[in-house]
Amino acid sequence: MVIALITILVLFIAALAEGLAAANKQYLEKLDADLIVFQEKVELSANTSRIGRSKVNDIRRIEGVKDAGQIGFSNATIVFPDNREPLDVSIIGIEPDKPGSPP
Questions:
Q1: φ/ψ (deg, to 5) at 37
Q2: What angle do CA 82, 83, 87 make, to 5 degrees?
Q3: Strand pairing partners for 75?
Q4: In angstroms, rounded to a whole number, what is the distance separating the alpha carbons of residues 100 and 103?
């Protein structure tokens, strides 16, 4: 019985992690973009890639690039003062009126 409960717990946590990862991936899949640039050595992870503003300006100056916008991902937990159950959220930040903005 204990092994069955542990197995269910592991499957539940794996499904939760997969669902959170899929939400970020869906956003990137639906972007109206020809190219997404990641920082070196982050294994194409949008959560860990950090490209500074000066590098984005360099990218904008490349011939053939129409425009570029930064996108940031973050995970957080909202803790309520009245002891309600904490709420886990994923946050996507964009530059307004730049590529990556939702329609």
A1: -105, 130
A2: 105
A3: 90
A4: 9
User: In the numeric block, which tokens belong to residue 18?
Assistant: 């997969």
Residues of the chain with pLDDT under 50: none
Amino acid at 97: D
Give the length of the chain: 103
- For residue 6, with 0-12 CB atoms within 10 Å meaning exposed, 13-18 middle and 19 or more buried, which class applies? exposed
Distance (Å, whole) CA 60 – CA 98: 11
Residue type, 94: I
pLDDT at residue 20 in the model:
67
| Neighbouring residues of 32: CB distance < 8 A, sequence distance ≥ 6 | 99
Per-residue pLDDT reduced to its tens digit, 57-86: 898 899 988 888 888 888 888 999 998 999
Which H/E stretch holds residue 44? none
78 bridge partner residues: 87
